[in-house]
Amino acid sequence: MNDRIRNEVVAVQTAGFTQNILGDTNVQILIYNRIIRDNLSQYNATTNTFTAASDGNYLVTIGLHMSDLTSGGVNYSGVRQLYLYKNNAFFVVMSRAIALNTISSETYLLNSSVVRLNAGETLTFYVYHSAGGITLPTLDDTKTNNLTITKLNSWWLKIY
Fold this sequence. Notes:
By secondary structure, the protein is mostly beta strands. 5% of the residues lie in helices and 51% in strands.
């Protein structure tokens, strides 16, 4: 099997799944509850945690499509952020957007980052929004609401 595919994790939010994101609270774990590919069993869909099977550099690509509308149809502006935690501690802001209630009723957060991991180290993904005590849902979008983690081959990182 191709080494890149063997060392790749792909997870999504399942069709019809909606995660309600509470506003102005601590960061909330982001759920990717359906594993598409994970030949080395590195992603736990129950705890939403990736555990590296081996030392290396991993390309992490994460996406989230969320509504800026409450169930009552009210649009809320504010900051939307995706956070990457390494070994249960804040590591980096993966993506940030500012939603303006006069422009859009949806926010897409998408980004990639290379992370160095040793075997056994973990990654967890969190989301935050600043729209008061309001709950904003993720949208039913399996094409955008996804997570891909690929271990990069050492040849990919060589500089010639």
